[in-house]
## 1
Amino acid sequence: MSEKDFRNRTAIAGIGYSRSKENPGGFSKNSGVDVLTLAVRAARAACSDAGLDPKEVDGAVMYQMFDDSVRTGLVLSALGSRKVGYASNLVGGGNYASFAVIQAAQAVYHGIANYVLVYRALNGRSGIRMGHWGAGAGGGLHRVGGESQFSSIYGLAGAASNHGFEARRYMDLYGVTSVDLAHFAVNSRSNAIKNPRAMMRTPLTIEDHQQSRIISDPYHLFDCCQETDVACAMIVTSTERARALKKRPVLISAGIGGGVSPVPNIEDTNLINIGPRLLAAADVKLNDIDVFEGYDAFTDMPMRMIEDMGWCKRGEAKDFIKDGRISLDGDLPSQTHGGLINEGYCHGFNNVLEAVQQLRGDAEDLCPNWHLGEHTYDRKLCRQVRDAEIALNVSVLGSSAIILKRD
Amino acid sequence: MSTEEYAYLLPQPNPLTQPFWDAAKRHELVLQECGECGKLRHPPAGICAECGSEAIGWRTMSGRGTLYSHVVVHQTALPSWRAAVPYNIVMVTPDEAPEIRLYGNVIDFDDSKLKVGLSLVAAFDDATSDDTIIRWRVADADV
C-alpha cells in the first residue's frame, strides 16, 4: 500500500473514557471494578461519542503488558458484536500507543473490518502495578534468572530506575538540569489544572518540583507519571463512514513504527529513524504541526522527542520550553491535558485521545460550553489550542508515531 | 557468607549464562562472542544477531570500562533492597566492547560524584560461597 493512498482515508470517529459516578474523569487510584468493566465502559463511551451502535463494532485492537488487561474477544463479546472481522492482542507497553491506532487503520483501509475498537484498559494501581516492573522476581525468591540475573541483582526494578539511565545520560551529555525538567513538569501541570479529568490539578512550582522526594535520581516525584486505574478507547473507521457519524472525524494522515526503538544510544529516541519518514508519509512539514502529545511517563522523554523531530537541537529543548514554545499559546502546545504525569497513566493511549479532542476543538476544560466546542481561550479556564489542525502523537521513545488531521 | 545470609538477589544461571558466572568466580570478566564471526554480545544468547551462527565462544575482558549512565535509587520496588536506599546502579561499557552495556554497582565512592564518562575497574565481590557478583570501582586516575 502506498502512503499516499492510505493518507487520510481512515479516521477516528469517537473516543471514550472509563467514567463512572465515583470517578467522573475516568482516571483513579482504585477503580473498584474489574478491568473488563473498565474496558467496556470506555468502549461504550467511544461508541456513544461517535453515535455508533456498539453491536456494529466488528474489530478490536488492544495492547497490554504483564497480562494486566482483557483481550479483544472478551470485550467484543461484551459489546454484543455479531460479525467480528479483525482482532489483535498486542503484547507490549507504551510503544504501542500510536501503533495500535495504525493497526486498526490498516484493517479498516483494507476492508477487513469497518468499525475497529482500539483500547488500553488496566487497573494499574489497584491491580498489576507498573512500578513493580522487574520486581516480581524479587518477591521472596532469592535467585533470579533470565535477563534479571544481570540487572535485578544490582537492585534494578521499576520504570523510574530503568528510564532514569536515559535521563541521566541525556542530562550529563547536554548540560540539562533537574530544574530544566521541572519547567517541563510545570507547563504540563498548568494545563492539567484546567482538565477536569486530570488526577493532579493543584498548582505546581519549580520549587515544589525541586523539593519533591527523589524516586530514582535524576527523577523527582514530579518527573514521574503515576500508576492509574483507567480505560481509554476509540473507534477507527473509514473517513467516509466517519463523516456519516455524529462527531467531526479526525483523519489518520500517517503512522509508522512498531514495538522497538533501535537507536545507537539510550539518550536517543527512535524519531531519529522514523520522524522524517512520518512527515513525508503525512505530507506535512514540521512547522505544520499544531499540537504535540509525546509519551511522557517521565519529563525528559518528550523533551528528547522535540529535539529528535528537529524542532530544536540536542540539549536545546530546555530553552524551547523556557521560551514558552510548548505552552497553550506557543507554537508547539504539548501535554495539553497535563500528559500522562498529571492526567493519569493509560500507558500513552490517553495522549492519543487528547490529540483527537484538540483537533475537534472540544477539549474538556473549565469553559462553560466546552462540550459544544465553545471555548473562551481565557487561560485560567481554557486549555483548547486555537485552531488546531494537525497533531503529532508519539509513543514511548519514538517507538511508534501518528499524525492526525482535522477533517 | 551462605546463600541464605546474602540480603539481596542472586543470579540463577542457565546453560547460556553459566560460563559468565563461572568466570566471575575466577575473578574474570568474560563476554560471550559469536564462535563464527567473533561479534561480542550481552546478555548471552543462542544465536548471533550479526551472522546467524549458533556457535558460541567466550572472550576475557581486561575489566576496565567507562560509566555509561547511572541512577541513584531512593525508592525501590524490590523488598530486599529497601534497607539499602539510597544506592547507585550503573551501566558500564567495557573498554574492549563499547557497544555493550553491563549493569552493576559502583562501590566505595560518593554517589553524588558519579558522572557519565568516569573510568571504572571491575571489582569481584565474593558475595556468597557460591556466587561472585561483578561490581565496579572508580579508577584511581578519576578519583
Note: The beta strands of chain B are 10-11, 30-34, 40-41, 56-60, 64-73, 87-94, 102-104, 119-125, 133-138.
## 2
Amino acid sequence: MQANNQQAQIQRAKNGDLYAFEALIKESESLVYAIAYRMLANPEDAKDISQEVFIKAYKNIHKFDEKSTFSTWIYRIAVNTCIDELRKRKQKQTVSIEEEQQTQDGFVPKQFVSQELSPEDAYLILERNREVMRAIHALSEEHKTIITLRDLNGLSYTEISEITNLSLGTVKSRLARARTQLKNEILKNREQTHNISRLTNQKGGSTYEM
Amino acid sequence: MKCEDARILMSLRFDNALSDTEQIQLTEHLEHCKDCREEWLHLEDVMQMLSQVPPVVLPENYHEELMKKLHEEQAKEKVIPFSVEKQHKKMSQKHLGAIVAAAVVLLAVTSNYGFDRLLHLHDEKKELLPSSAMEKIAEPSEADSFSAQSQLPPTATLAEGDTLEGLTQESNSERSTAKEEYQAAANVPTDSLAKAVPSVESAPPPATQDKESPPTEDTPKEKEEEIPSTKDSSADTADTSEHSPLSLARTATIMEAQEKTTADHYIDLSLLVSAEDNLQSSVNDFCAKHQGILLDSNIDSAEGMITVELPSENVSAFLQSLSTIGTITEQQESSMGVENNTNEASALPASTTTIRIHFSSSKP
C-alpha cells in the first residue's frame, strides 16, 4: 500500500469507515493470527484473541498516533493482548490444560510434511516440533514473545524493537537469553523423558504410569 | 571476552548479525572455552528445531468472520447516539449550507427573544457538551480536561466589564461572552475570547462566517484532528487559542451547529417481517426512493438492524414504504439521546433523521 494511500485510509478509518479499516488490516491478519497461535498454543484461542486484537484496534483507532506504521501498531496490540491473556491464564491456572491441548493438537499441519520426506523423517520432525513448542510454552511471556517474533515469524530486530518498545540492544540481549532459556527447557524435558524411560525399564516393562 | 558476552554474540551469529571483528572474537572465544562450545552445539540444535517449525496458516473464512464481528461492533457502537454522529461527520460537510443557515436562524431567534432565550439555550448546551461533543471523539481523560474547560468560571470572561445591572452572576458571564464574540466577529480579538471559546454560542459567529466563508470548511476538520491526538489536550487547546482564537471560536460554533443539524433526530423501530430475504434490497429501494442513505446493515439470519439516514420530510413516506414489507410493532423517537425534544432544537431545521430498523423475522 502506498504511503499516501495508506494515510488516507487511516483518516477514513478514524472517521469510522469500516471498509478503509478492512483494507488496512488485510495484510496483517496472517501475522497477528500467527503471533496469537504461537503464543497461546491453540488454534481456537488464537482465532478468538487475534480477532479481538482487530476489534480493539478498530475501537481505538483514534489513539493511533501514526508515529509507527499501522501494521506495527497492530502487532503491538497483538503482542500486548496475548501477554495479557497468558497472564490471565496463569491466574486461573489453566496452563496445564492448554499444554495438554498443545500436544494433542500437534503443531505440524499435514501440508508441511512434504512428500520428499520419508515417514520416519516426517515423524522425527513432528516430534521435534512438539518438543520445541512445549519448551516455548514453558517460557516467560517476554521470552515467548521475542522467540515468537524473531524465530517463528522472522521479524527483524528493528521491527521487534518497534513492536515491543525495547531498544535494539535490549532486543538482542533478551533474544540471546530467551534462546538460552529455550535450550535449557528442552534439555530439562529430555532429562525428564530420559529418567522416565529409565524408571520404566527398571520396572521391567511399559506399565509405568505417571 | 566473558562467556556472557560470547552468548550474545552466538545469538547474533544465528541471525547473521555479527560484524567481522565480532565474528573473530567469537571464534577465538569458542576455541578456548569448552563450556561455550558445548552451548553453541546445543543452541545450533535448538535453532534448527525452530527453523523447522512450520508457518501458521490462516484458517479458512478467517477474514469473513472477522469482518462480521467488526460490523457487529460498529452496529453496537451506533446504538449510542453520539457514535452515530461520528458516522455522520463526513456527511455533515455536505450540509454546511444548512449549518450556516441554522446558525443564522439562531441569531435571529436570539435577537428576537432576547438574552433569556440565549441563556436557556446555553445552559442546555453546556450539559450536552461533555456528553455528546466530547465523548464521541475524545478519550476519557481528554474529555475530562475538555469539559472542565467548557465550564470555566464566569470570572474568566468578566474582565471586559459590561452592563451588569439586573443580571445574576452567571448571566453576567453569558452576556459579556456574547459581547466579546461580537467584538471578535468585528476582528477585535481579546484575550478573554480565547478563554470563552468553549461557551461560544451559535449566534454571533455567523457574522464572521459570512465575511470569510472559505476557511469555515476547513476548521471542523482541523478540530477533529486535534482532539484525538495523544498530546496533552489542554496544552493543545491553549496553543490553538493563542495563535488563532477566532478560528477556534468559529470551529466550536460550527461543531455545535453541525450536531444540531445533522444528528439530532432518531427513530428506533421494531419491524416484524415475514421473511428477511428481501429486506435489505427492499430497504435499498426505499432509500433510493426517499433520498436516504443506508448507513449500516447487520443482518444475522432471522434478526438484525439496518440503519438509514434520510431527509426528515421523507420520514413518513419511508415508514409507509416499510410497512408494505412488514409490521412496525414499536416506534420510538429521540433527539441527541434526549427524549422529548426541546423547543430550541426544533427551532433549527432538522435536516436529517436517522432511522434504526430493528427487525425480526416471523419465519423461523
Note: Residues 82-261 of chain B form one domain.
